[in-house]
Amino acid sequence: MYRVVMRTIKTFLGVVCATALAAPALATDATLIVDRRAESVALYFKIPATEVSSVFGTGAEGLLGADGTVDVPRLYDGTFPLADDIFSTTTVSLGGEATPFEALSMMVHDPDVLPDFAMPYDAELSIAVCTSPETVQNMTLQTLEGYLGYFAWKVDGLAELQMTLPETGRAPLNLRVREFVDHVEVWDQTVTLPDGGVLTLTAPEPPAQASVGWLAFVALGFGAFAAGMIWPRTPKRKVAT
Predict the structure, then answer these.
(1) Which pairing describes strands 102-109 and 97-98: parallel, antiparallel, or unpaired?
(2) CA 146, CA 79: separation in Å to the nearest integer?
(3) What are the strands, taking DSSP E only, across 100-211?
(4) Torsion angle of C-alpha atoms 187, 189, 194, 196, degrees rounded to 10
């Protein structure tokens, strides 16, 4: 009887372990704000601090001190060198040409006091070290959100953009992409990128042209409507007999 019970327990544990190993890893959720101008592009990422390494290959551990918590004085020394290292295995092209992006800065924030991350201005504040470094003192990466910013200047900022992430063995990445042209949002979608996946953003139409086209369409429609309202009321000319 004892052997039967032990065999049953071992079988049950084996099934549990096999199920756990076979279960797919949970996808990572992140947000990317793309800030396009005529001659520049900025990329801003929001991602759980513990997932930076799984997405980019290099993590945010360089912001930590010997005790495993955020080293606030190190933040003041500048975070862009680490941000450059993190992005070094990610490639970006504009209009089919490889384009180098330089780090602006990176920062980690307490989820209880997260900054907004809905437009380029929010993103610029999110990566700034001077905003709230003391709020993350004595905190570990497990409880923080990471923000990273990158910039390319003197480029065709409105060309097709392709970003290729490195293969790190990670789970799928659910990436919300919010694209702006001159601070006007032109795209807001969530895409799922596999390990080593490529994000492609087609060349957007400049908002100014889109606005002019839309206003012209509205004006044409209004003119047609007005003509339709006036025409039946125009009296017919009488013919002399």
Answers:
(1) unpaired
(2) 12
(3) 102-109, 145-153, 161-164, 173-181, 184-193, 198-201
(4) 20
Q: What are the tens digits of pLDDT across the range 207-217? A: 755 444 444 44
45: closest CA among 101, 106, 99, 96?
106
Q: Cα(156)–Cα(204) distance, rounded to whole angstroms?
A: 12
pTM of the model: 0.77
Torsion of CA 20, 145, 83, 140, to 10 degrees: -80
Beta bridge partners of 187: 179
Q: Please give the average per-residue pLDDT across 49-66, as a whole number.
A: 98
CB 123 within 8 A of CB 33: yes
Q: What sign has the CA pseudo-torsion 110, 113, 118, 123?
A: negative
For the chain, the domains span 27-201, 204-232
